[in-house]
Write a structure and sequence with these properties.
This protein is mainly beta and 308 residues long. Helices cover 9% and strands 36% of the residues. It folds into two domains: 105 residues, Jelly Rolls; 126 residues, no CATH class.
Length: 308
C-alpha cells in the first residue's frame, strides 16, 4: 500500500513539473470581486474619519472594531443619508436586523454603548443628487447619571441614564392642605391633580405658591398629560426653522434669546407664553437676571391659579 501511495504521489508531482523543473500552478477563473459589506474598508478606531461623495441612491460600507465597551456617536455633516449599523457581515449585506438605523440631519447621532467586537456601517444617499459629506465616529467617556432635565439631580454631562432621578416632593402637608393631591408636571414642578383636564390650559401661564410663597408655574402641556387632557392644543414635534423649544418645550422665536427683554412668560408667541428664563438659556442670556415684579401683582384665578 505504501509503495502504491508513493507511486501515485510521484506521478502527481511529475505532471505538475514544467520543462525547466518548476512547479506549475493550475490556472482558473479569478475570484469574484468583493462587494457590499465584504468590501468595506476596515478602520482602526482612531482613524474612522473621511470625506467622500455618493451618487443619489448609492451606498458605501465602513467597518471598524472595538476592543472595549464604548460609547460612540456617528457624525455625518449632511442631511439625507440613511445609516445602518450591523454586528456582522453576510455576503453583500449586513446581518439583519441592524443594531441601529437612523436618518442624518447634518449633525451627530448618539449610538450609545456597544460591547467590544466588529461592526459594519452602511451609508445610503437617499437623495436623488450626488452629495459630498464627511463621516466621523466620535468616542465619548461613559458617564452615568440622571438624564431627565426636569429632575433635581439632572446631570447635563451624562450620556447613559443611571435610572435614578430625584424629583420635587409634591405630597407635602403644605401642598396637600392647600391644593389637594399633587403630581409632578411636565417640568418636574408640583401641580394639583385637580388641574388636569379642568378646561383650563395649564401651559405655564398659571402657577401656585410654594412654601416660600414663590409662584411656581404649572405646565401640563405635554404628551405625558395628553396635553392637559385636551385642555391645551397638541403641539407638533420639533420646531420650524427660526424657532427653538423654550424652557417648557414650547416653540418660540430664537431671536428673542438675549434681545434685551426678559422672556419669563410675559410675552407670547402664537398665543403661548414663552419662557427662556432657565439655566438652559443662561436665564435668557442675562435678560432675566433682574426680576423686579412682586407677588401681589399676580391676579388670582379659580382653583388657586395665579397668573404668571
Amino acid at each position: 500500500m505504501n509503495k502504491l501511495f508513493s507511486f501515485i504521489l510521484g506521478m502527481m508531482l511529475l505532471l505538475n513539473l514544467g520543462c525547466d523543473g518548476s512547479v506549475e500552478t493550475p490556472t482558473g477563473p479569478p475570484p469574484p470581486p468583493l462587494i457590499g459589506c465584504e468590501a468595506a474598508t476596515i478602520y482602526d478606531w482612531e482613524s474612522v474619519e473621511f470625506e467622500t461623495s455618493l451618487d443619489g441612491g448609492a451606498d458605501t460600507w465602513v467597518a471598524f472594531g472595538l476592543d472595549e465597551i464604548t460609547y460612540f456617536t456617528v457624525v455625518i455633516n449632511q442631511a439625507g443619508f440613511q445609516v445602518s449599523v450591523f454586528s456582522d457581515c453576510e455576503g453583500e449585506i449586513g446581518l439583519d436586523p441592524p443594531l441601529f438605523v437612523f436618518e442624518t440631519i447634518g449633525n451627530g447621532i448618539d449610538i450609545g454603548i456597544v460591547p467590544p467586537g466588529e461592526y459594519w456601517v452602511n451609508i445610503l444617499n437617499t437623495r436623488p443628487n450626488r452629495m459630498d459629506f464627511t463621516f466621523r465616529l466620535e468616542l465619548s467617556d461613559i458617564v452615568y447619571g440622571c438624564m431627565d432635565d426636569d429632575a433635581l439631580n439632572y446631570d447635563e454631562n451624562a450620556n447613559i441614564d443611571s435610572g435614578y432621578c430625584e424629583y420635587n416632593d409634591c405630597n407635602t402637608e403644605w401642598y396637600t392642605s392647600n391644593y389637594g393631591d399633587m403630581v409632578n408636571d411636565c417640568d418636574g414642578n408640583c401641580s394639583p391633580v385637580s388641574w388636569i383636564g379642568d378646561t383650563w390650559c395649564d401651559d405655564g401661564s398659571y402657577g401656585i405658591y410654594n412654601e416660600d410663597y414663590e409662584v411656581i408655574p404649572v405646565n401640563l402641556m405635554c404628551e405625558e398629560f395628553n396635553w392637559d387632557e385636551g385642555d391645551c392644543e397638541e403641539q407638533p414635534e420639533g420646531c420650524t426653522p427660526g424657532l427653538v423649544e423654550d424652557c417648557n418645550g414650547i416653540c418660540g422665536p430664537e431671536s428673542w434669546i438675549g434681545d434685551g427683554y426678559c422672556d419669563d412668560g410675559t410675552y407670547t408667541y402664537n398665543g403661548n407664553p414663552i419662557y427662556f428664563n432657565c439655566d438652559e438659556f443662561n436665564n435668557d442670556e442675562g435678560d432675566c437676571d433682574v426680576f423686579g415684579r412682586k407677588l401681589p401683582q399676580y391676579p388670582k384665578y379659580p382653583n388657586g391659579r395665579i397668573l404668571k
